[in-house]
Write a structure and sequence with these properties.
The complex is a heterodimer of chains A (463) and B (104). By secondary structure, chain A is an alpha+beta fold. Chain A is 25% helix and 25% strand. Classes of the chains: A alpha+beta (463), B mainly beta (104).
């Protein structure tokens, strides 16, 4: 794919640079099937109308048609390990008490008393209980959602116990995640994700991970705009110059799978095509930034003649990571150790495979302001072998003026990257609203995830 | 003002890390929690509706009332979420001769 000539819409790739697959094919430890998959498709080159990012009518349609009909990441299983544990998941005005009602059964109850509507649990909380008792008049429900007690039942002869069980959303459990969907007619979670993407996620072993760090911050931009800032590596050169040298940005790979999943693979430890010929392998190694660089802080970084930065980094990471976490990486490829695999699971979750950047992102519009969203970053580390699963880290909510680098457990280099992304977003939201141009113009290849994502948005809001 | 007096709560060995225990100390309902961050003593009554807290889950330095879900910081007693808005009392705690002692 090195042709500089125009091949046609969506067929061109970064000229004079190896492809992602060519880079990965040179690694010592070969990559698994899901890394080697390629699934790009041209989806048109029209502008994306921008009123979706600021128009309250569009947000209203999303609240009516998109959020109540899609599968959403509500919590991790490790948030609710014991029977009686619950976790309140909120999306806009909707709220669910995701509860482990039996050892292997999880339900998501609509979080409202069936008497006069009081939330049974405050939003954003979690805990353990044997019953859900309304703090207003004391109506209560058993863990399984069946009605337990109506105070002064003599006054409610019209309340039939069997029709007063707590209403439920649907629940799907996969890879240690608990997903919910309010729509009884929605496809199953498996159908929604699609066979091919399902096989990718199945291969990662995310059920064997735990939340090592959880940080949240309100971003002054629409949730879709915010997500789209993370859907391409095209912005790395301008926005993150400190990492651009050691990131195959312009030659990253982009794929779409069905309606609800897309991804990129962005190789690390190789020089950016923008910087080709201007940096040595040693420079690339010296520039290498990781999501969790504490693993290789003290490592020897002088390359031997003929050795590549990418291979040295993979070898170092393998050794240091095994030592630091007590887990074996025997079956893990170099690519999984090094590269950034960013997947979007529609509507609002990013899942990252791999070892060096083990994140999950979640984005939710603020209930009262569709021009802002809550962005959450979870770092998922492997559960140490032979040891009990650590408790999930509690959420640290940053103030708007705070830097991501201030969060406990956040790698400073990675926090700085997130700050750079956030600064862009404020300007982008404001610029879109200020612009004479009412559409976003997208690159055919590098920005295909954004187009694919907005197609799914359009499908749900019914345009 | 009476001077601060510590009273024996229970032997330390009865309260390993991860455990919690409630009892009355001269009429004061006290809950002691041994967490990863240390030993903390608080009132065993939720400030929301004065229900006992001792069956609540302790995680990340906070206890959750099992009845209505109010949460309290074990270090400061601060109410962290609805339905509680007022703090619960916290008490000084120390370990002497293998006993947990509380100044309640």
């Amino acid at each position: 794919m090195n042709q500089p000539a125009k091949l046609g819409r969506g067929l061109d790739r970064c000229p004079n640079a190896p492809s992602t697959q060519e880079i990965i094919a040179r690694d010592k430890h070969p990559a698994p099937f899901w890394v080697r998959s390629e699934s790009y498709q041209f989806l048109g080159d029209e502008d994306i109308p921008t009123e979706r990012y600021y128009d309250p009518e569009f947000a209203k349609r999303e609240w009516e048609r998109l959020w109540p009909r899609t599968w959403q990441f509500a919590c991790r299983e490790e948030h609710i390990p014991e029977v009686g544990d619950y976790y309140v998941y909120d999306i806009g005005r909707f709220s669910f008490i995701v509860t482990r009602v039996a050892e292997d059964e999880i339900k998501a109850f609509y979080n409202a008393c069936l008497h006069r509507g009081t939330k049974l649990r405050a939003s954003g909380t979690e805990g353990n209980t044997r019953l859900f008792k309304c703090p207003f008049h004391g109506w209560s429900w058993n863990l399984d959602g069946s009605l337990r007690e109506v105070v002064c039942e003599w006054d409610f002869p019209h309340v039939r116990r069997e029709s007063f069980a707590l209403p439920e959303a649907r629940v799907a459990r996969r890879w240690g995640f608990v997903f919910i969907n309010m729509d009884p007619d929605a496809p199953s979670f498996e159908e929604y994700v699609g066979e091919e993407a399902l096989a990718h996620f199945d291969a990662w072993g995310m059920e064997q991970r735990y939340i090592h760090c959880h940080v949240a911050k309100v971003i002054p931009a629409n949730w879709k705009l915010t997500m789209e800032a993370f859907m391409e590596a095209y912005h790395v050169l301008e926005t993150h110059p400190q990492v651009a040298v050691s990131n195959a940005d312009a030659n990253s790979q982009y794929d779409i799978y069905g309606e609800h999943v897309n991804r990129f693979i962005s190789c690390l430890g190789v020089v950016s095509p923008h910087h080709a010929g201007r940096f040595t392998e040693q420079d690339v190694l010296d520039q290498f930034t990781l999501g969790d660089s504490s693993f290789v802080a003290d490592a020897e970084r002088k390359l031997r003649p003929g050795e590549t930065a990418r291979q040295r980094m993979a070898d170092l990471l393998r050794e240091q990571f095994e030592k630091a976490t007590g887990t074996s990486l025997a079956g893990v490829s170099d690519s999984e150790l090094l590269d950034c695999f960013s997947y979007t699971l529609f509507p609002n979750t990013f899942l990252f495979a791999g070892i060096s950047l083990p994140m999950v992102y979640r984005f939710r519009p603020l209930k009262d302001d569709h021009r802002k969203c809550l962005y959450e970053v979870f770092f998922l580390r492997p559960v140490p072998e032979g040891r009990p699963r650590p408790e999930p880290a509690p959420c640290q909510l940053l103030e708007p003026h705070q830097s991501f680098t201030e969060a406990q457990g956040m790698d400073p280099g990675f926090g700085a990257i997130l700050d750079q992304d956030t600064e862009n977003l404020r300007l982008e939201q404001e610029g879109i609203e200020a612009s004479a141009k009412r559409g976003l113009t997208l690159g055919n290849y590098q920005e295909i995830r954004i187009r694919h994502f907005e197609r799914a948005v359009d499908k749900y809001v019914g345009r | 003002m009476s001077e601060r007096t510590f009273k024996r709560f229970c032997p330390l060995e009865e309260l390993p890390p991860g455990a919690k225990k409630a009892r009355n100390l001269d009429g004061v309902p006290v809950l002691v929690c041994h967490t990863g961050e240390g030993i903390f003593a608080v009132s065993n009554l939720c400030s929301h509706q004065e229900k006992f807290l001792h069956a609540g889950r302790v995680r990340a330095g906070r206890i959750t009332c099992p009845l209505h879900g109010a949460q309290f910081d074990l270090k400061t007693g601060a109410a962290l979420c609805l339905p509680a808005t007022r703090p619960i009392a916290t008490y000084e705690v120390r370990v002497v001769d293998g006993w947990i002692e509380v100044c309640a």
